[in-house]
Design a protein that fits this description.
Blueprint: E1 4-6, E2 12-15, H1 21-27, E3 33-39, H2 44-59, E4 64-69, H3 74-77, E5 87-92, E6 95-101, H4 106-119, H5 140-148
Parallel strand pairs: 2-4, 3-4
Antiparallel strand pairs: 1-2, 3-5, 5-6
């Protein structure tokens, strides 16, 4: 069973693996917020940032927090333009609010998550988009659904 940490009864911190893609897809249903850290196992910066990202999950219990190794999960995130690490993906439903490299700092990540979720008022509770997201074609929910259907 893949590693799942629960800081509370609401949402988990999950390492995305081939074996838990269906579970993650189910968690990303409807208008759930997802914050994914896209990293690589060989990256020392990512390794140092991981504990900060896990702590970020405790501060955002209403969101699904994913750790995604871009090499192990290239089938899922291969189309994403990842230039540096750590890269955060913040999305609600199928709409991406943010996709970009951040400073590996817990306070910076927290402020970014807070700002993006507060600013994202253009999506109804059913996930229907009423504005243009910055990278709406690069969402994890749609990618996982496509892989699960094959």
């Amino acid at each position: 069973m893949p590693h799942i940490s629960r800081y509370n009864s609401m949402m988990p911190f999950i390492n995305l693996h081939h074996a838990n893609r269906a579970q993650v897809h189910a968690l990303l249903a409807d208008s759930t917020w997802c914050v994914a850290c896209l990293c690589a196992a060989w990256c020392n910066t990512c390794g140092s940032f991981r504990s900060s990202f896990e702590a970020l999950a405790a501060r955002h219990p209403d969101k699904v927090m994913l750790w995604v190794d871009i090499e192990d999960e290239a089938e899922v995130v291969g189309d994403f333009d990842i230039e540096n690490f750590p890269t955060l993906l913040i999305q609600r439903g199928t709409q991406v609010a943010f996709l970009g490299t951040i400073e590996p700092n817990a306070a910076v990540a927290h402020r970014l998550v807070e700002a993006q979720t507060r600013a994202w008022h253009g999506i109804d509770s059913d996930g229907a988009d009423h504005r243009n997201g910055p990278a709406s074609n690069l969402d994890l929910r749609t990618k996982l659904a496509a892989l699960l259907s094959t």
